[in-house]
Amino acid sequence: MEKLSKEEVLHVARLARISISDENTLEKYQYQLKELLDNIDKIKEVKGYDEELMFSPVDHQASLQEDVPGEMLSFQEVKKNTPHMKGNFVEVPVMINE
Amino acid sequence: MEYQTTIGIEVHCELKTNTKMFSSAKNGYGTTANSYVNIIDLGYPGALPIINKGAIELALRAALVLNCEINKKMHFDRKNYFYPDLPKGYQITQARTPIGIHGYVEIDTPNGKKKIGIHDIHIEEDTAKSIHTAESSLLDFNRAGVPLIEIVTEPDMNTKEEAMAYVEKLRELLLYANISDCKIEEGSMRCDVNVSISKTEKLGTRAEIKNIGSISNIGLAIQKEVERQQEIYENGGTIQEETRRFDEKKGKTVLMRVKETGNDYRYFPEPDIPYVVLTEEEIESVKRMIPILPNVRRDFYKAHGMSDINSDKLIQNRPLSDYLLKAKENLDYVIASNLLLGDISAYLNKEHKEIEETMLTIEKFESLVDKLASKEITSKIEKEILVDLLEKPMSVEEALKEHHLTLVNDTKVLEEIVTNIIKQNQESVQDYKNGKDRALKYLMGQIMKETKGTANPVLVNELLIHLLNEE
């Protein structure tokens, strides 16, 4: 059975900020991701796949919104989904890759 | 052979809309952190983006101002990366169908005009603003989702002067067309500069210098980066494709990170937003909204004899330049610009007023300029009546009457005054006859003093010379 290289899996994992330390898990992903990509390649065989993007089976255009302010979230609401706040700021670990 | 420098510039500009790119939360700065947000900006599951019509119009206006071809059928793409300032895990941008392509901006160089090609201009959303401290990073999502345009040039610039002139010109255009505030220091306009050097036709490996904080620093950063690359090549090294930033204190560029390749962003079409279609009528109506641009004004000023200095000063002073647009074509624009930038600006600055807030209608202004041009009044008289013209609803004639300042055009009256002055200043008359030009000026001055500046200087000059020669 074909599989991706370890480096390819680790690269994708790095982009998703996932660490994989276990060798067995890594190998499992090498097979699973390859299978996934093969399935995507099958979709590409559909006739006309590359001709034009299809967002929806029905042909419709985006509807635009007037540039008028609408509803916003209250600060209480914002806080609910934020584990750490410092004053009004959302606090996260130091972002190093800057 | 010398190294040839090649420069390309990417500029991000925040659009001056009321709301965000894909949500109806307010677009505004300087307010309490995280108060202008809604579920779309915070990337709540299931929240769907809706395009802001105003942002599309401003981006279209920018594409037209930059002479671009318009993509009439466009879509958005997802640029995927995992970072706290982007809670969805991707930024919505335009990778395949940018709103404008193949445009240009014309700059002035010592060798004449040069067209800087615009590769594309695309629409995207801004990320949250982050503040870094030693312990943690702090995020303000008020900026998340603010509409941006990114303007990408071709690698058409070869000197730091050209790069600075381009950014300067671009800023002027976007400001005049009311597209963006373009405040580089405050971050509503951000510049990334790509620099490479090479001794051959083939371009060298480039380094990208991110987020340069002022136009003068763009010049400095390019200069330092070119020096750095030259030194590496001279020592037999190679340049890595990398992202750097300009450290103002150190006065050099420093490494940020080795650049991710485009593939890592895994661009794919944004499935939540169908195609956006721009009709010919929509494009035409946006075209009609574009005000007269600086280069057109500059050409007009030049054609009417205005100096480059005055022309530049007026362009930088939008309210005065707009005011002058309303004036008739056969005005003396040299006098008009001197008056606007001199006495009138001094008054406006002192009173903290805009020209449109004064009583000086364009008709009154024209009449004042005409009278100065025909020497019907002197600039001394203009100075005496100007404040009244600016503050009261009176015409130039009424102001002259009120100040008893009608210019003396009566030859008989003037002849008498001139004769008297000649009699009283025989020494100067002798000097004049001995060929001293200064004597004539002195006599003129005496006459003006006597008439409190109300004498028509052209008439006085003629009379004086005539009478002196009869002496």
Strand order of the largest sheet of chain B: 2-6-7-10-1-11-12-13-14
For the largest beta sheet of chain A, what order do the strands appear in spatially? 1-2
Task: Briefly note the structural class of the backbone of chain B.
Answer: alpha+beta
Total domain modules of chain B: 3
**Residue share in helix of chain A:** 25-40%
Q: What labels describe this entry?
A:
heterodimer; A: 98 residues; mainly alpha; two-stranded antiparallel sheet; 3 helices; 2 strands; 39% helix; flat; B: 471 residues; alpha+beta; Arc Repressor Mutant, subunit A; 3 domains; nine-stranded mixed beta sheet; three-stranded antiparallel beta sheet; 15 helices; 40% helix
Structure write-up:
The complex is a heterodimer of chains A (98) and B (471). Chain A has a domain at 6-44. Chain A is built from 3 helices and 2 strands, in the order αααββ. Chain A has helices spanning 6-15, 23-44, 75-80; strands at residues 85-86, 89-93. Chain A has a two-stranded antiparallel sheet with strand order 1-2. Chain B has 471 residues and is of the alpha+beta class. Chain B has 15 helices and 16 strands. At the A-B interface, β2 of A face α1, β8, β9 and β16 of B. β2 of chain A pairs antiparallel with β9 (136-140) of chain B, so a sheet runs across the interface.
Detail the topology: elements first, then pairings.
The complex is a heterodimer of chains A (98) and B (471).
Chain A: H1 6-15, H2 23-44, H3 75-80, E1 85-86, E2 89-93
Helix pairs in contact in A: 1-2
Chain B: E1 4-14, H1 53-65, E2 69-70, E3 73-74, E4 77-80, E5 90-93, E6 100-109, E7 112-125, E8 129-132, E9 136-140, E10 147-153, H2 160-176, E11 189-198, E12 207-212, H3 215-234, E13 242-247, E14 252-258, E15 268-269, E16 276-277, H4 280-288, H5 294-303, H6 308-316, H7 318-325, H8 333-351, H9 362-373, H10 379-391, H11 396-402, H12 411-424, H13 426-433, H14 437-450, H15 457-470
Helix pairs in contact in B: 2-3, 5-6, 12-14, 12-15, 13-14, 14-15
